[in-house]
């Protein structure tokens, strides 16, 4: 559990930034709401994968080639938005997620993220999955990066329901359940990635480079 509530106001954003980097990967992170910043996260370790529900003020992130060379966990990050909106730009694609939308980012390629568009606070669930755990051809998953994946229908709906149940009732599970829960998570993510047409994907226009060293 992590919360800025009991921290001095001047330390809150820096502490949250360090938390995000540990959860995900090295990034340049900023916000227009540094003063009196508020954030809360929980960390649920499921074998080699992890799930972390979070709420926070708006924040923007950038992962550059230099930061990738510095450290790359070689994983996919999946975001489920529950409140507010988020914009992801990666690999020439742009996706904007609203509540109950999802998208994935690849830690091995540069990206830009803007969370809390229009000054909205956000609530979300992040999922970190090592690429080696997904039984899918890498090129197939790569085509889904930054694409909007609706979570109200098909495979997306099943994954959303699992994540909500897991994060809202985590106290009801034992540590011995972690490996079984990881298996369920990976099966649902793999099914969503393998059959993206069931998520009504919408292609965004190609854009220019998103980050530089």
Write down the CATH class. Answer: Mainly Beta
Biggest beta sheet attributes: 8 strands, antiparallel
Low-pLDDT runs of 5+ residues are 199-213
- Relevant CATH superfamily: Jelly Rolls
Outline type: globular
CATH topology label = Jelly Rolls
Mean pLDDT: 89
Ends distance: 33 Å
Tell me the number of strands.
13
CATH architecture: Sandwich
Quickly count the domains: 1
Report the helical percentage.
25-40%
Order of helices and strands: EHEEEEEHEEEEEEHEHH
Instruction: Give the C-alpha Rg.
Output: 16 Å
Binned strand content: 25-35%
The helix/strand class is: alpha+beta
Enumerate how many helices there are, as a single number.
5
Question: Can you describe this structure?
Answer:
By secondary structure, this protein is of the alpha+beta class. The chain has a single domain (2-199), classed as Jelly Rolls (Sandwich), CATH 2.60.120. It has 5 helices and 13 strands. The chain has helices spanning 9-23, 65-70, 138-142, 154-168, 178-194, and strands spanning 2-3, 28-30, 39-41, 44-46, 49-56, 59-63, 75-83, 86-90, 93-97, 101-106, 111-115, 122-130, 149-150. The strands form 2 sheets. Strands 1, 3, 4, 5, 7, 10, 12 and 13 form an 8-stranded antiparallel beta sheet that branches.
Question: What key attributes describe this structure?
Answer:
eight-stranded antiparallel beta sheet; disordered C terminus; 213 residues; single chain
Write the layout of secondary structure elements.
Layout: E1 2-3, H1 9-23, E2 28-30, E3 39-41, E4 44-46, E5 49-56, E6 59-63, H2 65-70, E7 75-83, E8 86-90, E9 93-97, E10 101-106, E11 111-115, E12 122-130, H3 138-142, E13 149-150, H4 154-168, H5 178-194
Antiparallel strand pairs: 1-3, 2-6, 3-5, 4-5, 5-12, 6-11, 7-10, 7-12, 8-9, 8-11, 10-13
Helix pairs in contact: 4-5
């Amino acid at each position: 559990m992590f919360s800025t509530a009991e921290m001095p106001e001047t330390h809150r954003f820096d502490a949250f930034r360090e938390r995000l980097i540990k959860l995900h990967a090295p990034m340049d992170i900023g916000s227009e709401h540094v003063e009196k910043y508020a954030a809360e996260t929980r960390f649920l370790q499921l074998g080699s994968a992890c799930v972390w529900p979070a709420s926070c003020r708006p924040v923007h992130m950038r992962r550059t080639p230099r930061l990738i060379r510095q450290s790359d966990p070689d994983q996919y990050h999946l975001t489920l938005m529950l409140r507010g909106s988020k914009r992801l730009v990666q690999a020439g694609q742009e996706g904007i997620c609203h509540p109950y939308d999802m998208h994935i980012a690849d830690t091995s390629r540069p990206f830009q993220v803007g969370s809390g568009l229009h000054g909205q606070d956000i609530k979300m669930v992040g999922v970190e999955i090592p690429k080696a755990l997904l039984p899918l051809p890498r090129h197939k998953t790569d085509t889904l990066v930054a694409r909007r994946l609706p979570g109200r229908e098909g495979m997306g709906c099943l994954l959303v329901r699992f994540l909500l149940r897991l994060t809202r009732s985590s106290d009801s599970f034992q540590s011995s359940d972690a490996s079984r829960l990881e298996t369920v998570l990976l099966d649902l993510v793999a099914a969503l990635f393998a059959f993206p047409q069931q998520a009504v994907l919408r292609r965004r226009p190609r854009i220019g480079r998103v980050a530089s060293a």
